[in-house]
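We treat protein structure as text, and this decision shapes the records that our systems exchange. Below, we set out a record of this kind in full and without editing:

***
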Amino acid sequence: MKQQLAIIILTTLLTYCGMPSSASQFATPTVNIQSAASNDDAALSDTPLTITLLDIGQGDATLVTTPNGYTILIDGGPPGSGKHVTLPYMMDHNITALNHVMASHYDSDHIGGISEILAGRDGIADTSDDIRVTGYCWDHGNSTIKSTPSFLAYAQATTTCQRTALPGDNIYFDDDVSIEVVAVNGRSRFGILAETDSDDENAASMVLLIRYGEFRYVTTGDLPGGGGNPPYDTVDEESAVAPLIGHVDILHLGHHGSGTSSNLNFLKALSPDAVVISVGDNNSYLHPNPGTLARLHDLKIPIYQTNRGHNVGTQGSHIANGNIVIETDGNSFEIRQNPKSH
């Protein structure tokens, strides 16, 4: 696939999709029974699918809006970012409800802001300005860190919408938009990805594949790829999941560009046309890792980062210093770097 920054692209369980949040703030979810296969004769919408990586600092929060107005929040960033970044962004874009929330795993930099978002502007749950979830709040189920403040706040906020994701789950939106749970809790539809400790939160990460027409985007949470040095070495789940994903147009780089993720086999198998990284400036984790960036540069994969990160080895990366916005019509895509509104 030829890179231009507008790029021509390559392209089984029923779930609730909900009504588009732009159509009704308090819509009741409806069962979507359409086939997973897209209709090749159907024309794609003139309205793009939009994927926005919000600049929430060191963490992850991604807002997906489908052509027909369905809205999906994938992760909610660290504590404080929900109230001060994501919620104001949603209000600026007239998003007063979400069709689904998907928590890749329970680290605080991924779920810490979700309770703040759902509480609405007044910051108080169960009041009239709450952000309603018309479908489900998807996560990996049982947690080994239930005593953490971020998890307790998340669990309380999502009590009425919680649903445990299973490998192979699909959520269908519009005619040609879907989100597939490729792996979760260290398992795919075909079995265990790698032997791991039960308390390894990163290894439980949900791997999500978003499709629209021929466009494919994957996000892996903090899924490990076997990198790191003892005692911080990791299991390699990426190599097992890579064949189940195949080529993608955009890879949301795992674990903020950490050295424990994005191994060479994984990158070669997915062969993305671009990668995006959500990372905070001057973070103490040394993200993104220089070795990870070097692998991407060697493979000539364009890199887009919300921020510079640890300020090491980012030469050649596109630094947004704000939000990264991806728009696709299902045939081509465009990546924009937009300073955040707040």
User: Anything to note?
Assistant: The chain is about 15% helix and 25% strand.
